[in-house]
Amino acid sequence: MSDTKEKAPATAEFPPPVKWLDDRLGVGKIGRKNLRKVFPDHWSFMLGEIALYSFIILILTGIFLTFWFKPSMAEIEYQGSYSLLKGLHMSEAYASTLDISFDIRGGLLMRQIHHWAAVLFIAAMMVHLLRTFFTGAFRKPRELNWVVGFGMLFLGIIEGFIGYGLPDDLLSGTGLRITQGMIQASPVIGTYLSFFIFGGEFPGDDMVSRFFTVHVLLIPGLILVLVTLHLFLVVYHKHTQYAGPGRTEKNVVGYPLMPVYMAKAGGFFFVVFGVTALMGALLQINPVWLYGPYNPAEVTAGSQPDWYMGWLEGSVRIMPGFESHFWGVTLSWNLLIPALLIPPAFVTLVALYPFIESWITGDKREHHILDRPRNVPTRTGIGAAFITFYGLLWIGGGNDLVATHFDVSLNKVTWFLRFAVFLGPVLAFWVTRRIAISLQRADEERLLHGLESGIIVRSPDGGYSERHTPISNYEAYELTAHDRLVPYEVGPETDDNGVRAPRRALNKLRAKLSHFYYADAVQKPTAAEIEDAHSHGHDDDVHELTDTEAFHEVTPDKH
Amino acid sequence: MSEKRTSLSPARFLSARRRHRSAGLVVLLFGLLAVGSAYAAFAPGSAVADNSAQSQQIEEGKKLFAVGCSSCHGLNAEGSGNGEGDMAGPSLIGVGAAAVDFQVGTGRMPAMQPGAQVPRKTPTYTPEEIEALAAYVASLAPGPAVPATDSYDISKVTDEQVTRGGELFRTNCTACHNFAGKGGALPNGKYAPSLMNVDPKHIYEAMLTGPQQMPVFSDQVMLPEDKRDIIAYLHALQEQKDPGGFGLGRLGPVSEGLWGWLVGIGLLVAVAVWIGAKGVKAKGHGAPGAKAEGAKAE
């Protein structure tokens, strides 16, 4: 199809069977356009693919598992081949999970691939989100696609957590019990909500069958809709690209979908499937037989959720145990704050970030060329702060294992995190922002003065200087492809007629934020500045030493 | 002995002979014997004096104790402070032979340094020395004895009993020791140790005596056969091969997440970088992407 010529009718060259189909479906026309669609080539554009392929693997292995999993909490006596649990009373859900693991050919492998794929699915979505964030790919016109992606991540996490709860082993029951506690901690509606979700007192008899439907039908369906929307929007917006020669806001430079990208993406699918299958075959995940059937009277050390819920677990773990009682009502701040206030606030900020940034910066233009993280130091700093905050809570979720494996006191880990969770993000923001600005300065240096050639020249009067060679035009283009960033100005308080500008306070805040956002960033030099910098170097190809450039000087007594 | 028999005779027999000329002597002898027996019964040192082998062992234990243990536990095992009001070593009176056998047999005692918890290490004393120390501490006051070998013998335990042991283990032990007996954290630097590769006798003794942070599960609370079943389950866990591949330490989802990120995502990103680099090189050198210019955006 790639050899289909523009001028020839779409159906002219098709062999008969394809022509038969095309006459009836008209796919040739769509295919001709879309198979030639160009995608830019960069490894960081393949991170989302990992998520997509893991999702496909999840569906395939999940279908296999539904053939044998019995979503029922009916109590039965286990008579399968795992001898350490033989004769115990347990739910059909747990017994069938054991059967899948021990008595069904390939069952354990499928279960483990399914679980590893879930781990990778959400991790890949998160890595993809970080790439999108740090390169500014969420800017207009892609804000809504960011929200769609965020929706998938959110649903993926819920989906994973419910899947973790399905086998009805001790670990999943403990996880659901904690979740139920969080639900109950919501003021006024908590108890009602808990009864509504679990169909009565926890654990009840409905949990597994309800969660099963949500896990295999509702959420995968929603994710599938969002995946379609996400990919449709990628095609519609066209893919973003990194700055480079020949790349502008108005074109896309890359390879056509067919055959280059098709081969790459198809190959990558098999790599992802291969890695997931290898992990499923070699690395044991969620050994449900070790946990035993769920029994509300039992609990085990090492009861943790899968990694993507770890930060929530940590948030609850490091929270001091505050509670207030009044008029016969208990308010559990120790759950309310770490589980019901902070995480929703955090994820809302993440979901709405594109809108927040564009409001602050006042940037309403379309962007198809990606930012280098250093060129937007404040955003990069904010990203680092978010990662730090998340990471510290995440560590909190494993505070017991940190304590035992690094031989420190559990209490000290917790107390450290209680402070670090506030101070760490600030520090990370500041350090990252400074590093980004320093890198910008290094770029500017490169642009204006060129590369240090390593050749030291001695002038007739005994001074030393280093010869600089200008960088290539390609590189100069890359380094200057971004816009000069100007802070939003609040404007005069009154217009010519003495009328006060409306929403003055809001605009002032906006100007302040915008100033904070852009003020310290290094503005790329103007064409005149570059011209000027180059012309004074071009005469003799040797840098003249001025006062401001004294640091280029190499004096013998320093060595 | 004849006097004894006399004293056991009916009252009339005694009454008839009370004026016998040797009656005074008999009473005197009887009195001496009674006092002697009472002394023998109440004085700790000589109570076992008739068993010379055991007394020798206690004597040996006492000597070992004076050298290796008394600096913290006191010369008479009465416990001692470190001068700052903190207990350097608790009193060992009444802890029983089982506690000594566990603490010294697992190498925890003698402790190398004070800390949140004394770790397990290679035992310092030989089995004979440990027995002597245990005998000495047991001689101070009654306490739980070292369990008999058949109480923790798991060779004849049935599968049902192992399963039962698993339920008991999950109900009583996993909260601290983890679902696979790998141990877990406790407050302030303390921890529940791993139960892997621990002598069945020591597991039994630990339940019996509650060392360090552990609660006591006495034989009245947890029957000897319950203890044996738990030990049998732990043994089965330890012998069990991980059916799903490398067990990742059997620590739960935290290590799984770590492997997922480091190995899974790490590998996939590495492959993505490789594929990304491959295309550019194959298609042309110099300016990346310059070869396949195309698809103007509308």
From TrEMBL, chain A:
Domain Cytochrome b/b6 N-terminal region profile stretches: 17-243
Membrane-crossing residue ranges in chain numbering: 50-69, 115-134, 146-166, 211-236, 257-283, 335-356, 376-395, 415-432
Biological process according to GO: respiratory electron transport chain
Gene Ontology cellular component list: plasma membrane
Annotated protein name in UniProt: Cytochrome bc1 complex cytochrome b subunit
Cofactor(s) needed: heme
EC supergroup of this enzyme: translocase
GO MF: metal ion binding; oxidoreductase activity; quinol-cytochrome-c reductase activity
UniProt catalytic activity: a quinol + 2 Fe(III)-[cytochrome c](out) = a quinone + 2 Fe(II)-[cytochrome c](out) + 2 H(+)(out)
Gene3D superfamilies on file: Cytochrome Bc1 Complex, Chain C (1.20.810.10)
Pfam families linked: Cytochrom_B_N_2
Subcellular location: Cell membrane
Keywords: Cell membrane, Electron transport, Heme, Iron, Membrane, Metal-binding, Respiratory chain, Translocase, Transmembrane, Transmembrane helix, Transport
Entry EC number(s): 7.1.1.8
Annotated membrane topology: Multi-pass membrane protein
UniProtKB/TrEMBL annotation, chain B:
Compartment(s): Cell membrane
Signal peptide stretch: 1-40
Domain of life of the organism encoding this protein: Bacteria
Positions annotated to bind heme c 1: 69, 72-73
One GO molecular-function entry: quinol-cytochrome-c reductase activity
Main location: membrane
EC number: 7.1.1.8
Keyword Transmembrane: yes
Catalytic activity: a quinol + 2 Fe(III)-[cytochrome c](out) = a quinone + 2 Fe(II)-[cytochrome c](out) + 2 H(+)(out)
Post-translational changes noted in the entry: Binds 2 heme c groups covalently per subunit.
Subunit structure: The cytochrome bc1 complex is composed of a cytochrome b (QcrB), the Rieske iron-sulfur protein (QcrA) and a diheme cytochrome c (QcrC) subunit.
Identification of the protein by name: Cytochrome bc1 complex cytochrome c subunit
Organism: Kribbella albertanoniae
Lineage: Bacteria, Bacillati, Actinomycetota, Actinomycetes, Propionibacteriales
